[in-house]
Design a protein that fits this description.
257 residues; alpha/beta; zinc ion binding
Length: 257
């Protein structure tokens, strides 16, 4: 079988309600996956697995974790039973070791919604092995970018690399009105990031403290950091989808080839 090179992706996964109410993003995710060769496996760095050290899930079939509260009961009935890929996970650990990046196996962690929620729309049959890697708290933006670089050669083996976070993420600023305007601080931040990436100025994005309104868009960094991972997977940037939900919650999807 001839394998094709897949892109790296950054996906803004939004609220857990995306699983029940896909809005514009669910169809965009499905179109994206429909236009790609079917992956041999998927590797995801999620904003919702923060760890002290870099970890790789080596489980044969992780449980679906509903790592949120206060949502409709039907959301907690959703399962995403995709298999893991222990052999590939061990290979990933070996790649990190070769690159001098300390990493550990984790065979017990369930699969958080930063992984299964976008995949529910992309690959609803859950018939592709999925490996989650953690977001190390101690690592700099450059370090996280390097993780993407180390895994980038796997793209040539038809393995899909995904950073799952959000281009803007300030839960305290969300609006519950369907027709809420996008605030200037959110659109300016998003537009600046896109401009920098479009002009191949990746260093400006990795220097995230200098981005406009950074503290208002990201009071904590965990939802932006998966973008750094995705940036490391490829240098040719394209916008797959761009929208806002709940006023200030950016739902962009980016592709890196």
């Amino acid at each position: 079988m001839d394998l094709q090179t897949l892109p790296g992706l950054f996906i803004s996964h939004g609220s857990p309600m995306l699983a029940l109410d896909p809005e514009q993003v669910g169809p965009a995710l499905y179109r994206l996956s429909s236009n790609l060769p079917k992956p041999q496996a998927i590797i995801v760095m999620s904003a919702h697995w923060e760890s002290q050290a870099l970890e790789v899930n080596t489980s044969t079939r992780p449980e679906t974790w509903h790592d949120f509260r206060g949502f409709p009961p039907e959301l907690y009935n959703i399962r995403y039973p995709a298999a893991g890929a222990p052999k590939l996970a061990e290979e990933i650990l070996a790649l990190f070791a070769e690159a001098g990046i300390p990493a550990h196996a984790n065979s017990t962690r369930p699969r958080d919604h930063g992984v299964w929620m976008p995949l529910l729309h992309m690959y609803p049959n859950a018939d592709i092995p999925v490996i989650e890697i953690s977001l190390p708290l101690y690592m700099s933006a450059d370090d996280i970018y390097r993780i993407g670089e180390v895994l980038s050669p796997l793209r040539a083996r038809q393995i899909l690399l995904i950073g799952s976070g959000s281009i803007t993420h300030n839960l305290a600023e969300l609006s519950w009105h369907a027709d809420a305007d996008v605030p200037t601080w959110a659109s300016t931040f998003r537009n600046t990031v896109v401009s920098k990436l479009s002009h191949q100025d990746f260093d400006a994005v990795l220097n995230w403290p200098s981005l406009p309104y950074i503290e208002r868009n990201h009071p904590s960094l965990e939802h932006l950091a998966p973008l750094f991972f995705a940036m490391g997977t490829g240098h040719r940037f394209n916008i797959v989808h761009s929208s806002f939900s709940m006023g200030s919650l950016g739902m962009d999807i980016y592709r890196f080839d």
